[in-house]
Design goal:
Blueprint (H helix, E strand, L loop, with lengths): L2 E2 L8 H8 L1 H11 L5 H18 L5 H35 L2 H12 L3 H19 L4 H12 L4 H11 L7 H14 L3 H8 L3 H46 L5 H20 L10 H20 L5 E5 L7 E3 L8 E2 L3 E5 L3 H15 L4 H35 L1 H10 L5 H16 L2 H19 L3 H13 L6 H10 L6 H26 L1
Parallel strand pairs: 1-3
Antiparallel strand pairs: 2-5, 3-4
Helix pairs in contact: 1-16, 2-3, 3-15, 4-7, 4-14, 4-15, 4-20, 5-13, 6-7, 6-8, 6-9, 6-11, 6-12, 7-8, 7-20, 8-11, 8-20, 8-21, 9-10, 9-18, 9-19, 10-11, 10-19, 11-12, 13-14, 15-20, 16-17, 16-18, 17-18, 17-19, 17-21, 18-19
Length: 511
């Protein structure tokens, strides 16, 4: 049975939006004011979203269940699978003693924690974002910071904030290329439009990270390093976006920035640094992971297992103005045989043989990983169930249409659409799929460049990555603070909102 989405069930778009936003407001209040654990807040919000979808939007109960199931499946794979793989690889590195060498190699560049955050969370994190994305950068960099002695909440929060430097272009530029293809635009044009804003944000983030560790005093004491690191990153990011596109911008910006900072540290603070033996061998698992992920990205294959979600696949119809013409919504759960997850599995397998790790150590690492991640997996699955209910029911589209009705000041609110999309889905790619067509239609109707609005959807969405329930759950799981997601959310939310306002204002001024 086919069901048609309704976007204004109360015959007033702002009244409908005020009801549609209730599950999101509840989730935020549950984490910040009520201080609930992440999985409880997510389950409660999913229940409220389900109630709104059925009673206000008229969504059939079976389609509601199908939407939630699709979200849960996506939560398990690829999101939870990536976290499990990343933590397992980290535990192998710790148990073999190789992580101590990794830590020493970082300290040999600088034992200053403010500089270490720039090296690991900012540069290496952006590199991983460009190579892998989908939660892996935050998980891996957070556990490295923990190993360097950072307090768990701060490690998680810092990595989430740092992730926005490269978050607009993760996994080889897919957040730009996917919505560009969806709307029939030139991806280079969309990438160039993001260059008007995101390099300034990236540059600011380098200062913000140091400020979060040591305030203005820290910025004064490390200013030369911040300028070299953040300045190099921003300049390379701008040039690549304007000339090459989004595919390699994170990888190139991160590598050049990391190299510039490493070289600068040898002159800016002359000192005798200890020689670290076996460094390359210790870093080998993470080097292999990066190489394999990049290789897999360029392997074009359709090898995957597709499972249709019965009852909702092509049984829900989207309507204008959310889309150009009525179209059925697909609901296929895909398991690609070549992906970031399989890259992590392959890397872990190679690492076991290279390091000659005993079966006992492998078993212990696997058991510890699964024991620690049961609750985070529940949180991730609950969050994705909540997100998919909002998307399939039309709740998300109602919020988008309300913002799109703002007319000439739409550029101010355009990034908010991306922000809401990432908050709900945890992915800049998914946010683009959700709202890029609406951005294009609204831009055309108001006489604004559609490519600019699709770009603002990407940039605005990036500002939500640090507070996306999915991202927060991944970060909390990585640093071993399951049940304290509310503290991580509280750490990042004010910076997310602040940067979203800055992006909106800049977008209004330059458009």
């Amino acid at each position: 049975m086919v069901w048609n989405q309704v976007y204004d069930p109360l015959d007033n778009i702002w009244l409908s939006a005020s009801v549609a936003v209730l599950p999101i407001v509840l989730f935020i209040l549950a984490l910040t004011v009520l201080k609930m654990k992440g999985h409880i807040a997510a389950i409660l919000s999913a229940v409220v979203a389900a109630g709104v979808a059925v009673t206000v939007y008229g969504m059939p109960p079976l389609k509601l269940i199908g939407s939630a199931v699709h979200g849960i499946f996506t939560g398990i794979y690829p999101v939870a699978a990536i976290v499990i793989g990343a933590i397992f690889l980290y535990k192998l590195s710790v148990k073999t003693g190789k992580f101590e060498i990794i830590k020493s190699s970082i300290v040999s560049l600088s034992d200053d924690k403010r500089i270490q955050v720039l090296l690991i969370a900012y540069c290496f994190g952006a590199f991983l974002e460009g190579a892998a994305g989908f939660g892996a950068p935050v998980a891996i960099t957070a556990v490295i910071l923990i190993g360097l002695g950072f307090e768990p909440i701060k490690a998680a929060g810092l990595c989430l904030v740092a992730n926005i430097a490269g978050g607009s272009f993760g996994a080889m530029g897919i957040p730009v290329t996917a919505p560009s293809a969806l709307t029939g635009m030139d991806p280079l044009e969309v990438a160039a439009n993001t260059a008007h804003i995101i390099p300034f944000i990236s540059f600011f983030v380098a200062f913000l990270l140091v400020f979060l560790i040591d305030g203005f005093k820290g910025i004064r004491e490390t200013l030369p390093a911040i300028l070299v690191c953040g300045g190099t990153f921003a300049v390379v990011q701008f040039v690549v976006l304007m000339t090459i596109g989004a595919e390699l911008v994170d990888v190139l910006s991160a590598l050049i920035s990391l190299g510039a900072l490493a070289v600068f540290l040898r002159f800016w603070k002359p000192s005798e640094r200890p020689k670290v033996e076996g460094t390359l061998f210790a870093w080998l698992p993470f080097i292999l992971l990066t190489v394999i992920v990049i290789a897999f990205t360029y392997i074009k294959t359709n090898m995957k297992i597709d499972l249709q979600i019965n009852g909702i696949h092509e049984k829900i119809i989207k309507h204008p103005p959310v889309v150009g013409e009525p179209s059925a919504v697909g609901a296929i759960f895909s398991i690609p045989l070549i992906s970031t997850t399989t890259a992590i599995i392959l890397t872990a397998t190679i690492t076991i043989f290279l390091y000659r790790i005993s079966a006992k150590t492998v078993k212990e690492s696997a058991k510890e990983t699964f024991d620690e991640l049961w609750t985070p997996i529940l949180t991730i699955c609950s969050v994705l169930a909540f997100a998919y209910i909002c998307n399939y029911s039309g709740i998300s589209s109602t919020l988008g249409l309300a913002l799109a009705s703002t007319g000439s000041v739409f550029p101010l609110f355009s990034p908010v659409l991306g922000w809401i999309g990432v908050f709900l889905t945890g992915s800049v790619v998914n946010s683009g799929s959700l709202f890029a067509p609406l951005q294009t239609i609204t831009a055309t109707q108001t006489g604004i460049d559609p490519a600019a609005m699709v770009a603002s959807n990407v940039v605005g969405g990036d500002m939500a990555k640090m507070i996306s329930p999915q991202s927060v759950a991944v970060a909390a799981a990585a640093v071993g603070i399951v049940g304290r997601e509310n503290e991580v959310f509280k750490f990042t939310v004010k910076y997310s909102v602040l940067l979203l306002i800055v992006v909106g204002v800049l977008n209004l001024i330059i458009r």
